[in-house]
TrEMBL record:
Protein name: NADH-ubiquinone oxidoreductase chain 4L
Membrane topology recorded in Swiss-Prot or TrEMBL: Multi-pass membrane protein
Enzyme class: translocase
Gene3D superfamilies: 1.10.287.3510
Any Gene Ontology biological process: ATP synthesis coupled electron transport
Principal location listed in the UniProt entry: mitochondrion
Keywords carried by this UniProt record: Electron transport, Membrane, Mitochondrion, Mitochondrion inner membrane, NAD, Respiratory chain, Translocase, Transmembrane, Transmembrane helix, Transport, Ubiquinone
Function field: Core subunit of the mitochondrial membrane respiratory chain NADH dehydrogenase (Complex I) which catalyzes electron transfer from NADH through the respiratory chain, using ubiquinone as an electron acceptor. Part of the enzyme membrane arm which is embedded in the lipid bilayer and involved in proton translocation.
Species of provenance: Hippocampus spinosissimus
TM regions (residue ranges): 6-22, 29-49, 61-80
Pfam families in the record: Oxidored_q2
Gene name for this UniProt entry: ND4L
CC per GO annotation: mitochondrial inner membrane; NADH dehydrogenase complex; respiratory chain complex; transmembrane transporter complex
Subcellular location: Mitochondrion inner membrane; Mitochondrion membrane
Amino acid sequence: MTPVHFAFSTTFVLGLMGLTFHRSHLLSALLCLEGMMLSLYVALSLWTLQLNSINFSPTPMLMLAFSACEASAGLALLVATSRTHGTDRLQALNILQC
């Protein structure tokens, strides 16, 4: 494994560990998801450059577009949750209650 691949794998795993262990607030969970998506985007971009293939070139931009949609949906949920519950703490949310 090259140092570049190790760095992006470590970045993804750190984002996943942050999402797993430190999910007290919705905002911190969204930031961990964005960090994971950013590391995947950079790794996919480098993979496309290493392959020198024109067929895979739109893939990183498509993933970046999906990441932006995911971020906007997450922020909309954050605003809706903080308006209805008064906090973004995940322990205060009850999934069974509408």
